[in-house]
Amino acid sequence: VKVRYDAAGFCGHDRLGSAIRLHSGFVDKYIGDAIMALFPGGVADACRAAVAMNRELETFNSERVARGLAATRIGIGVHVGRLMLGTIGEPQRMEGTVISDAVNVAARLESLTKIWSTPVLLSEDARDALPVDEQWSVRSLGRVSLKGKTEEVGIYELLDADVVERRASKEASGVAFSKALDSLRARQYADAERGFAELASNNPDDGPAELLLNRCRAARVREAGIFEVLD
Q1: Residue 25 to residue 47: CA distance in whole angstroms
Q2: Which helix (H) or strand (E) holds 95?
Q3: Residue 137: is it exposed, middle or buried by C-beta count within 10 angstroms (0-12/13-18/19+)?
Q4: Fewer beta carbons below 10 Å: N end or C end of the chain?
């Protein structure tokens, strides 16, 4: 798991670290305004920790708003895979760390939470690794290209980590979102644009719907330009 928070507003290492440890994880390292954490027990523990961290954030933000300060946010990327854990460095400077492609993917997913305006993103591998006997609310956002990966990676939004009202709205519109996403994948941009426009209008806080709406509009402009040249 890679977690990043707004350092100007949330210097809550103790709050986030406690949520990680409470769900059988451990902090690998602090990286400026980010935390890298590992969960030997599996993805479910990581997701439970992600939800707990967002609940801590809600409490922290309510305290900030009560003092007249702006709310802040965190972004969390979750991936699963094999890694090497050990000590690196040289005789005068040694440290424990993990090295693997899985770590890089988690970091890339965390960076995407800003673009998609959602608190937690799971890779498709992480989603598939969730226990089948547990109920998790996730929403597919399609496939994206990640730096360092030759193939696109499926990404999913962990709705359990969202605030209650926004989660309920996203779950209620799940079928409509999937239909619009299918239209976008099929390059039926007009249909996709209508779908995402309605979703964004009904729920202005739905960051992924707004992002995909803008992508549909941009695709239609590009398509129109191509036809103008052909004509």
Answers
A1: 11
A2: strand 93-99
A3: middle
A4: C
DSSP 69: P
Low-confidence ranges of the chain (pLDDT < 70): 1-13, 225-231
Between CA 225 and CA 231, with CA 228 as vertex, the angle to 5 degrees is 155
DSSP 193-222: HHHHHHHHHH-TT-HHHHHHHHHHHHHHHH
| Residue 3 phi, psi dihedral angles, 5° rounding | -120, 135
Tokens of 173: 């519109």
Contact 127, 47 (CB under 8 A): no
> How many Å apart are CA 178 and CA 176, to the nearest integer?
5
Sorted by sequence, the CB contacts under 8 Å of residue 175 that are 6+ apart come out as none
Structure tokens of 89? 């460095």
In the sheet that holds 2-5, the strands lie side by side as: 26-31, 34-38, 2-5, 74-78, 120-123, 153-158, 138-144
In Å, how far from its chain's centre is CA 89? 31
Length of the chain: 231
pLDDT tens column, 58-105: 998 898 899 998 888 899 999 999 888 888 888 888 877 787 888 899
